[in-house]
Amino acid sequence: MLKTQVSDGWAGPEPRSPMTLALDVVESLYGLAARDRAERDLFALERELAEALAGRDAARQLLPALFGPLGLAGDWERFFSVDNCLLDRVLARRRGIPVTLGVLILHLCERFAIRAEGIGFPGHFLVRIWAGDEPSVIDPFTGKPLGRREMEQLLRGARGNLARLRSEHLQPAGAMDILTRLLNVTKAAFINGRQFSEALACSQLLLKLRPDCPVARRDRGFLFEQLDCHRLAAEDFEFFIQHCPEDPVADVLKAQIAALDLGPQTLH
């Protein structure tokens, strides 16, 4: 059964770690039992990693241990699967995509007193880790450090061949920025699998973070439309049109509203 309740701590004054927020998402969608399973798997991984790092330089050996004997890996074959987006499933499989593996790496770095931060890089979440005085930018999908050339290739893949790497692309990402990215990726994976009710739940969570975001309202409207909740879809489309009247999509949405059946409906 899907839920859309979130912890009050999302909007509270105390900062929450990306891992805590990611587990909040799991609990919000699938309940406390799913979160409990994830926390047990996380504890098991922490214990295995502690054994692997015993007597070794944790900052230099954490990633080789994770992506070696402990079996962490990017999932090339099922990249857009929901299994790669929800932390309970990522922990169970030890497979994921850059943002979920990045969240896990950030948590483990904190657990083993290694300085690290997330980077909201376009199209490919990255992690910066300090092993000594100089940091390295890590691709959490492979566990490997990236040089400027590799980062430029990633950037061009996301932004086109004319894109050039700038310092703004490598700024640290806050926990709520990481959560927003995770929710957007998870929503897209549900849509890709035509799981529109689950995608709608992600949209509801995103709107708890930014309740007046016109784009988030527009996207939720599309999901309401897929679920035959036409009146709710029209309300979200009208909100977008009101706040973004010059956007080319506004005219498309006006035509879409006119075509909707706006009789009484029930959200299932």
TrEMBL record:
InterPro entries for this protein = SirB1_N (IPR032698), TPR-like_helical_dom_sf (IPR011990)
What the entry lists under Pfam families is as follows: TPR_9, Transglut_core2
**Gene3D superfamilies hit by this protein:** Tetratricopeptide repeat domain
Residues annotated as domain Protein SirB1 N-terminal: 45-184
What does UniProt give as the signal peptide span? none
Family classification: Belongs to the UPF0162 family.
**Name this polypeptide is given:** Protein SirB1 N-terminal domain-containing protein
